[in-house]
Design brief:
two-stranded antiparallel ribbon, 4-stranded parallel sheet
């Protein structure tokens, strides 16, 4: 998974119900892409410089929040589009695999024009939800960072800063930990309330462990 390929994937596919994963390795690239999409979407942009306090976490948080806002707007536009050939909502349902939701769409298409068909279309609009905007941290890429020649505290290491940016973002999704075990990173997750279930036992942010073999799964599990 290349950082350049995954950095804006949700902006291309999430509205069609397709989940994807953004790599959080390169915060310089993330800031550059945030600038591009702020301009494209007409949103205000204020640069977060490398020398700014907590720059890596803030860059990641602001970019993820931007992606979240854009995808929500895209979904609203998709839901409002007409059920006609090549429309956004038709693309959404045409790409679905066979199943209950696809069957509802197919059944709606053969209905004659009228209240029943309109009602079914309204139901389908509500059921058209975006894919998850997930993120990835390579746990062993956790170099320390410096300011004025002094080593910053561990919480400003690359991996922990990336986790903080995601943990403080508005996303409701999952974070994928790959490339090994980082106990300090796992402990740091407890600092963010979104990783804990709410009063209804729902999780806003979930954790996915990417493992390559049985031994790795056994150690991290």
């Amino acid at each position: 998974m290349g950082t350049g390929f995954s950095i804006d994937t949700p902006l291309r596919v999430a509205r069609y119900g397709i989940s994807s994963v953004i790599s959080l390795v390169d915060d310089v690239l993330i800031e550059q892409i945030r600038k591009v999409y702020c301009k494209k979407e007409g949103e205000p942009y204020e640069e977060i410089k490398c020398s700014d306090d907590d720059a890596r976490a803030r860059r990641i948080k602001e970019y993820l929040n931007l992606v979240d806002r854009i995808v929500k707007r895209q979904v609203k536009q998709l839901q409002a589009s007409p059920f006609e050939e090549n429309s956004e909502i038709s693309k959404y349902y045409e790409m679905l695999p066979d199943g209950e939701l696809k069957n509802k769409y197919t059944a709606m298409l053969v209905l004659p024009e009228g209240e029943d068909k309109t009602s079914k279309q309204d139901e389908l609009r509500e059921l058209a939800v975006p894919g998850s905007i997930d993120v990835n941290i390579m746990t062993k890429l956790d170099k320390p960072n410096f300011s004025n020649g002094h080593t910053l505290p561990d919480e400003f290491n690359d991996a922990l800063s990336a986790l903080r940016g995601y943990g403080e973002s508005n996303l409701k999704s999952a974070i994928v930990f790959s490339a090994g075990l980082n106990k300090q990173l796992y402990n740091y997750m407890t600092k963010f309330k979104d990783f804990f279930a709410d009063t209804n036992n729902n999780l806003k942010k979930k954790i996915v462990l990417k493992v390559s073999d049985y031994r790795s799964a056994l150690i991290q599990g």
